[in-house]
């Protein structure tokens, strides 16, 4: 039985308040006119004058060539409007990145939970209550994301998804060919369907898991098993749709077949990492003495293996496009390599090299502080991953990492901590009573 | 004198495990245990040191990675930097995505094969090697514990029979 410690509750509230203030500041400081946008671009360029010499050169070159044409005034107006919409996108993008990042932690944990049930794993039932706690963020996270998409698609409050703009759609033949899929009502219906489906599964299994505690037979357990099988089928279809809608849709002229699995790998590894970190925290409080270091070892192996799986998919996608270098495909990576080099390649160090070297040793995987340290690095790495799914497509080369981004992370971090530990505190016990595999799990030893 | 050994045969791995623990508690040195299949936890019960084969494997993997990098850097970048289908061969890093599949495979190849060879050498296994099997039944359904004798045949025989051995015999060490 866990009681929500006051210190943690206050920390989460402070994070949320600071985050809300920062998010508000981000929206207020976004430019509303072209003049303001120009001033922001000018001040950041003056700031980084040294590093942007090349950019200046190419800009000057660009102006020389366009000056020879009659249409150069139109070009400039279009360029300015483009700059303005990019800068206006920044607080929205920062919000989406953090909102999705924390949402994907709970989705990843939910899939892991379902997989453990379907596989009838003998080692993990002692961790089910912790997983249920981590997935508690699913519902608030889904509501926030859905509201965000209603504001984006229904009320056109930002320019993140260019296909949602009817003027652009009217002038773009390629997008018109995709309008059977990329249209606003269908988009919102799809999002509602998969978010609703995931939340419903979570509600259903947690309810059955409580019923199993009090049951005389194993009917709830069998229901959990069956619903998990169908959830996984449903999930892997809808997860692909989610990846196409929310992230590939940011770049509607580009497509990649691998993209949805790549995004899933990120979700899965960060979900498992959070389960391990919450476990280490609760164990440090002495609340889960039935969990031994073999359980932690298994979670460490999952973080290790799934980090490599993520790297494999990242490389599979990058290398195929780099190798063939078909312009319509490589445009996606051009922005990322040119303007986001530190994020794009830095995350490889955090998501692959670091966990690979740290978690290779068996003894290290059994140490709580080692899991926490690697987990923090892996989570920062996957935040960077989400960052480079969104930012290059919406803000482009005008990105920076400042108050809007940090405060969005703080807000959702606070909310995640609050929801997760509140849910764990409300559980009748941290150990399932009548799970048929619970005895085996308690004596699990590797 | 130390050329004689006492051999105790068991027909159950649980009995073998408890026998190993009792013999160790009585401070006799177990020379060898022969089993038809891996008995989980036997190495810990016997007090064997953990294997360092994984560390070897990691180092071999590093060698494989270095070989792959050195080889491709020399061939593709330094020796003959040809333009093949527009791939940038100006520096190793520029063309590195194309090299990574080979770097990966070479790492795995070296790590796996050299580790297996190390295993064969350390456990003295090779073709035409004469089998060191004290009793042919140990490859089928019997477990055999072997202890070096130090003029304590009677005491050891009693202890081993006590632990549930189905057969105890003294033989020359080979």
Mean pLDDT of chain B: 92
Total beta-strand segments of chain A: 0
Main β-sheet of chain A: number of strands, strand sense, barrel status? none
The rounded distance between the terminal residues' Cα atoms of chain B is: 13 Å
- What structural class do you assign from the helix and strand content of chain B? alpha+beta
Q: Helical stretch count of chain A?
A: 17
Helix content of chain A: over 70%
Radius of gyration of chain A: 23 Å
**Main sheet of chain B: which strands, in order across?**
2-3-1-4
The total count of helices of chain B amounts to 5
Name the overall outline of chain A.
globular
Please give the number of β-strands of chain B: 4
Q: Judging from the principal axes of the Cα atoms, what is the shape of chain B?
A: rod-shaped
What is the H-and-E element order of chain B?
A: EHEHHHEHE
Tell me the Rg of chain B in angstroms. Answer: 26 Å
Can you describe what's shown?
The complex is a heterodimer of chains A (446) and B (174). With 446 residues, chain A is mainly α. Chain A has one domain (6-30, 89-424). Chain A is 76% helix and 0% strand. Chain A is built from 17 helices and no strands. The radius of gyration of chain A is 23 Å and the shape is globular. By secondary structure, chain B is of the alpha+beta class. Chain B folds into two domains: 4-36 and 138-172, 2-Layer Sandwich (Alpha-Beta Plaits); 52-123, no CATH class. Helices cover 47% and strands 14% of the residues of chain B. In chain B, strands 2-3-1-4 form a four-stranded antiparallel sheet, with helices on one face. The radius of gyration of chain B is 26 Å and the shape is rod-shaped. The model of chain B has no long low-confidence stretch (mean pLDDT 92). Chains A and B meet through helix 12 of A and helix 4 of B.
């Amino acid at each position: 039985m866990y009681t929500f410690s006051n210190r943690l509750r206050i920390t989460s509230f402070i994070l949320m308040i600071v985050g809300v203030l920062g998010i508000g500041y981000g929206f207020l400081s976004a430019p509303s006119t072209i003049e303001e946008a120009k001033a922001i671009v000018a001040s950041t360029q003056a700031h980084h004058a040294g590093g942007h010499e090349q950019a200046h050169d190419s800009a000057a070159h660009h102006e020389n060539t366009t000056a020879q044409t009659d249409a150069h005034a139109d070009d400039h107006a279009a360029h300015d409007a483009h700059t303005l919409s990019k800068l206006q996108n920044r607080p929205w993008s920062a919000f989406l990145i953090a909102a999705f990042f924390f949402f994907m932690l709970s989705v990843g944990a939910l899939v892991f939970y379902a997989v453990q049930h379907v596989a009838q794993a003998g080692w993990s039932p002692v961790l089910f209550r912790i997983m249920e706690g981590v997935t508690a963020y699913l519902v608030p996270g889904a509501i926030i994301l859905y509201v965000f998409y209603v504001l984006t698609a229904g009320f056109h409050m930002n320019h993140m998804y260019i296909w949602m703009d009817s003027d652009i759609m009217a002038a773009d033949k390629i997008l018109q060919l995709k309008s059977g899929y990329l249209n606003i009502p269908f988009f919102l219906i799809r999002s509602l369907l998969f978010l609703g489906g995931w939340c419903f599964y979570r509600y259903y299994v947690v309810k059955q898991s409580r019923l199993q505690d009090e049951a005389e037979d194993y009917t709830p357990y069998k229901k959990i098993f069956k619903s998990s099988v169908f959830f996984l089928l449903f999930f892997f279809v809808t997860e692909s749709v989610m990846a196409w809608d929310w992230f590939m849709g940011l770049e509607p002229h580009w497509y990649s077949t691998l993209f949805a699995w790549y995004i899933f790998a990120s979700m899965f590894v960060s979900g498992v990492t959070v389960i391990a970190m919450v476990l280490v925290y609760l164990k440090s409080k002495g609340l889960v003495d039935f969990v031994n270091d073999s359980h932690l070892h298994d979670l460490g192996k999952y973080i290790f293996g799934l980090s490599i799986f993520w790297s494999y998919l990242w490389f599979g996608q990058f290398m195929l496009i780099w190798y063939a270098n078909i312009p319509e495909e490589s445009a996606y990576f051009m922005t990322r390599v040119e303007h986001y080099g530190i994020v794009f390649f830095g995350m490889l160090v955090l998501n692959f090299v670091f966990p690979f070297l740290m978690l290779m040793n068996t003894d290290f995987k059994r140490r709580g502080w080692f899991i926490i340290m690697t987990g923090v690095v892996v989570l920062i790495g996957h935040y960077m991953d989400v960052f480079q799914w969104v930012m290059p497509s919406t803000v482009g080369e005008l990105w920076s990492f400042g108050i809007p981004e940090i405060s969005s992370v703080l807000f959702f971090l606070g909310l995640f901590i609050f929801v997760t530990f509140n849910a764990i505190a409300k559980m009748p016990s941290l150990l399932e009573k009548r799970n048929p595999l619970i005895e085996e799990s308690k004596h699990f030893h590797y | 004198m130390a050329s004689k050994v006492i051999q105790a045969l068991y027909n159950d791995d649980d009995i073998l495990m408890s026998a190993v623990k009792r013999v160790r508690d009585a401070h006799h040195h177990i020379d060898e245990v022969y089993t038809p299949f891996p008995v989980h936890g036997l190495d810990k019960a016997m007090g064997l040191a953990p294997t360092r084969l994984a560390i070897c494997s990691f180092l071999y993997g590093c060698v494989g990675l270095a070989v792959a990098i050195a080889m491709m850097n020399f061939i593709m970048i330094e020796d003959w930097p040809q333009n093949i289908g527009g791939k940038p061969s100006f520096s190793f890093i520029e063309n590195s995505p194309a090299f990574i599949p080979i770097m990966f495979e070479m790492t795995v190849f070296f790590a796996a094969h050299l580790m297996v060879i190390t295993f064969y050498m350390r456990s003295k296994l090779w073709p035409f090697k004469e089998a060191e099997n004290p009793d042919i039944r140990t490859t089928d359904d019997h477990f055999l514990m072997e202890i070096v004798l130090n003029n304590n045949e009677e005491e050891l025989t009693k202890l081993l029979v006590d632990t549930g051995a189905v057969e105890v015999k003294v033989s020359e060490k080979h």
